[in-house]
Structure to design on (325 residues):
């Protein structure tokens, strides 16, 4: 009998849904107690200081604990990151630390690891929680409260502009949890302040040069802008270059606020060009490895291990420049 292509597609989808449902029904994989483990760390990319600091922290902690670390860099591709997790599964790691580049595509990686009996701990970014849940499909999420980071950036901006600003927003990677949540938290506070208006909002992919290019375009279309909200410091630094090239004076005729806490951004505050930075702490190593050990020991792990974040402005930035990354 010749099957209709639509029927084959429907059967395929049903099979995928059935496979995912079967994986979801299983218990969270256990981890044997051992002195040392072989663990994976699937990084998203290494094109900014935040990512490099996170990787360094993970590698340093692995060395300190005497654990073997299988490290991969997805080079900005969600598809490669899924393949990286496949290769970790094939190498028989005891646990996978995953920093999921985007919320939806990386659900597949979490479920594959679960099916293979390998526990996953999500670091710094989330996957879509309607499809994969902490405590059921992965052990936990260790990371900042991105919605709160967006709120804190907006609250500072409202205060420092007297509640009046025309804002250009530079969003992070489309489909990533920090971009989604930083946008949400910021918009929530802005909506309560009638004098504050987001005049343009576009992704600069968390990258410095893309931030510069997007800022250049948005500024041409919105020369009346009086503030910039960048979802990370790298894009804020790129925006400074675009602003200065256009004859604007950041810190004087336009207010810039961003998120992360890189050395360049803290120096930007000291130089009077960036108004404030909400910290997003990248040093995950100690908490990640401690959580894996606690999980192996059979302890109950909270679904979200929150990373606390500082706040930098003119009054305290200088003292943190030297220890920043
Ligand atoms: O997920 C955290 C974000 O990812 C950081 O703010 C950004 O710099 C990084 O690429």
């Amino acid at each position: 009998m010749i099957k209709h292509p639509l029927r084959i597609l429907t059967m395929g989808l049903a099979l995928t849904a059935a496979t995912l449902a079967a994986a979801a029904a299983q218990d969270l994989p256990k981890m044997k107690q051992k002195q040392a483990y072989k663990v994976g760390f699937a990084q998203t990319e290494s094109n900014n200081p935040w990512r490099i600091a996170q990787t360094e922290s993970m590698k340093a902690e692995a060395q300190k604990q005497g654990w073997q670390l299988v490290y991969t860099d997805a080079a900005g591709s969600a598809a490669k990151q899924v393949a990286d997790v496949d290769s970790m599964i094939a190498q028989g790691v005891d646990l996978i630390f995953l920093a999921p580049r985007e919320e939806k595509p990386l659900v597949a990686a979490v479920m594959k690891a679960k099916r293979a009996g390998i526990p996953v701990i999500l670091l710094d970014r989330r996957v879509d929680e309607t499809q994969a849940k902490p405590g059921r499909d992965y052990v936990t999420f260790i990371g900042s409260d991105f919605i709160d980071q967006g709120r804190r950036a907006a609250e500072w901006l409202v205060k420092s502009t007297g509640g009046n600003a025309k804002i250009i927003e530079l969003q992070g990677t489309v489909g990533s949890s920090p971009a989604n949540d930083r946008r949400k938290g910021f918009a929530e506070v802005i909506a309560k302040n009638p004098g504050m208006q987001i005049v343009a909002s576009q992704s600069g992919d968390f990258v410095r040069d893309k931030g510069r290019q997007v800022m250049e375009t948005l500024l041409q279309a919105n020369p009346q802008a009086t503030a910039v909200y960048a979802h990370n410091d790298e894009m804020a630094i790129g925006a400074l270059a675009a602003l200065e090239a256009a004859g604007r004076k950041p810190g004087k005729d336009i207010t810039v606020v961003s998120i992360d806490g890189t050395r360049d951004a803290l120096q930007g505050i000291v130089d009077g060009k960036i108004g404030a930075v909400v910290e997003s702490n990248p040093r995950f190593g100690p908490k990640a490895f401690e959580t894996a050990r606690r999980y192996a020991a059979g302890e109950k792990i909270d679904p979200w291990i929150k990373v606390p974040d500082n706040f930098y402005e003119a009054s305290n930035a200088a003292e943190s420049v030297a220890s920043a990354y």
